[in-house]
Amino acid sequence: MKRGKLYFISAAWFRWRRLVLILLLGWLLCSCSSLGYYWQAASGHLAIMRKVEPIEAVLKQPDLDPLRRHQLQIALQAREFASRELALPDNNSYRGFADLGRPYALWNVIATPELSIEPKQWCFLLVGCVSYRGYFAKRDAQALATELQQQGMDVYVAGVSAYSTLGYFNDPLLNTMLREDEADWVGIIFHELAHQLIYVAGDTAFNEAFATTVEQEGLRRWFARQHQPQVYQSYLTQLHWSGEFYAMLRHTRQALQHVYNETISVEEKRRRKRQLLQQLKTEYASWRGQTGYDRFDHWMAQDINNAHLAIVASYHELVGNFMQLLAQNHGELSAFYRAVQQLAKLPKPARHQQLTRLTAN
Questions:
Q1: Distance in Å from the first CA to the final CA of the chain
Q2: β-pairing, 133-135 with 154-160?
Q3: Considering its fold, how many domains does the chain have in total?
Q4: Better-scored residue on pLDDT, 205 or 260
Q5: If phi over 0 gives left and psi between -120 and 50 gives alpha, with beta otherwise, what is residue 106?
Q6: Which among 158, 186, 214 is the end of a domain?
Q7: Is residue 165 part of a domain?
Q8: Alpha helices, DSSP H only, in the chain?
Q9: Which residues are registered as beta bridge partners of 111?
């Protein structure tokens, strides 16, 4: 146990030193506000790493909650499965656990212009440009959200249960990941490890769709190996209803984009925007009544705006293409990963065109 704990501390320290060098480089390249952002990101992550203990050590605690014990035991099995059966990175990510004492690991700020569905881009060292800005303290995220709202932008602050450091650190399993059923957090492990395997700076849609594909295929194999067909069927049902919900959001997103592109007055665009967002609420209420699926009630209870819809496509639009690419490689994950790595080498427009061309029926 002591050796395991020492390893986690040492690994974190050496990677922290490397991150400090990156911050010093950032000092030379970035504005003071950017440097402040990098500092909160680095210090926020380090604060999490200080809480990490090897899962095997946590499991030896006699007063550990039985449900948490079961979750951690399953997590270790899923972690081994990820490397052995899914050919995902074999490192110490998700072999350590940290209880953060809060509901989310961090909070993302997403923002769009009032009459546009395109999210504001933020560009960072290492990861390139993304459609959100993450904070480890909710108050910092809300402060930025307020600033952007005062500029007339639509803003959404979203709690995030997990994140990936893309292999720069050994990412821990967090209590924030363990709030839902098994498919949710086992899927997160597969998803985040997929980001460590392949990540293209500045292409959120490609990265998220790839990781989501690995997550879904990984869960199919996981539940088959666990001999839990009923649990997997329940997961498929949730996936089906979630797909219908996201289709509603995409439809509204597309309708808004059409309105914003029209040569009509600003006031008319605002009127149609309000109309379409109200139609979404009405459509959801009808769908909810027909299906009885209540997982998105809390999300839909918000005052929905452009920012809520802006990144819908990022996580779901290309998943079907990646699934087809996996099928074309006969379900061989190693061959699938090689094909994705070849796509990753292309410029962004060519990458998306080639992915669509490869998977066109």
A1: 53
A2: unpaired
A3: 2
A4: 260
A5: beta
A6: 186
A7: yes
A8: 2-29, 32-50, 55-59, 66-86, 138-150, 182-197, 204-225, 229-261, 266-291, 297-300, 306-310, 312-316, 319-328, 333-344, 348-358
A9: 155
- Report the chain's C-alpha Rg in angstroms: 21
Which residues lie across from 53 on neighbouring strands?
Answer: 97
Of 186, 220, 254, the position where a domain reaches its end is 186
- Residue 219 domain-assigned? no
Which residues face 106 on adjacent strands?
160
Q: What is the C-alpha to C-alpha distance for residues 8 and 53, in angstroms, rounded to an integer?
A: 7
Which pLDDT score is estimated for 169? Answer: 83
The first and second tokens of residue 242, run together, are 């979630």
More confident residue, 28 or 265: 265
Number of neighbours of residue 106 by Cβ within 10 angstroms: 25
Sort strands 173-174 and 96-98 into parallel, antiparallel or unpaired: parallel
Tell me which residue has tokens 């067909």: 229
Write down the pLDDT at residue 317. Answer: 79
Residue 255 structural domain: 231-358
Query: Is 197 within the bounds of a domain?
Result: no
User: Is the per-residue pLDDT at 313 higher than 70?
Assistant: no
Residue 263, Cβ density class (10 Å: 0-12 exposed, 13-18 middle, ≥19 buried): exposed
